[in-house]
Amino acid sequence: MRADHIRLLHSRLSASGHDLGPDVGRLTPALSRAVAAALPSHAPPADWQGWPATRQAVALLQALARAEGVEAGPLDGWWGPQTAHAAAAMLARDSTGHLPDWRDITPATANPNGWPAESGVTAFYGPHGTPDGPRPPLVQVPSPWTFRIAWNLSQTRSFLWAHERTAPSVARILSRIHHHYGEARIRELRLDIFSGDYMPRLMRGSRTRWSMHSWGIAYDFDDSRNRLHWGADRARLAQPEYRPFWEIWEAEGWVSLGRTKNYDWMHVQAARPD
């Protein structure tokens, strides 16, 4: 928890009548006692009293978010992307008077191309590629704007690799993004920062499951500003000005893991999460 999250707790508990002393942006003994006194009214798990003070504080923040109509995930006291998103939403409402205008919108569920579930990608697309081995049928889809390579911005590329079954969809998407934003705005928003397309590899943290990149059905953008585990409170592509970008992908059935799960905001794929 950051200092602003602790201040959020401090303000809520002070408003409900707890005497906490000055707000110093850290978990003081008085604040910890107030957290422990407030938690029982929110039906925490049975073992909550054995949790460290910081975990209790996170649990209370989750409970307060839920009470204020902000989804924070399970009341478990663990800080994750959904809790971070809830805290960011609460802070935004405190400062602006309203919740962020789009992060709680359910992404479009259209699937006009019939993209499969992740568990069915092999049946739909055929075998995945392997390092130094066979690769799926790939097509170079020309881009209306020039991409800069994330790990070397002086290096450019004018196309994306796509599986032959997704190539027509990718071409339509790139055309619509270009039409909506224009080249100057694309560069300003760093939508020209390309971080990956076809790359045969296992999913991060897995020894058996292959990444969607291994079929040429996934893309990453601007990874340095949209880290894997960052939620909407930190990821650049979670900002409101990127909503049309994601909606263009979603209209073709592609899935943003950021928009659906609030992590890996750099990533979009032509496969539906199971």
From TrEMBL:
Residues 205-269 form the Peptidase M15C domain. InterPro entries: Peptidase_M15C, Zn_M74/Hedgehog-like. Pfam families: Peptidase_M15_4. This is M15 family metallopeptidase. It comes from Paragemmobacter amnigenus. The lineage of its organism: Bacteria, Pseudomonadati, Pseudomonadota, Alphaproteobacteria, Rhodobacterales.
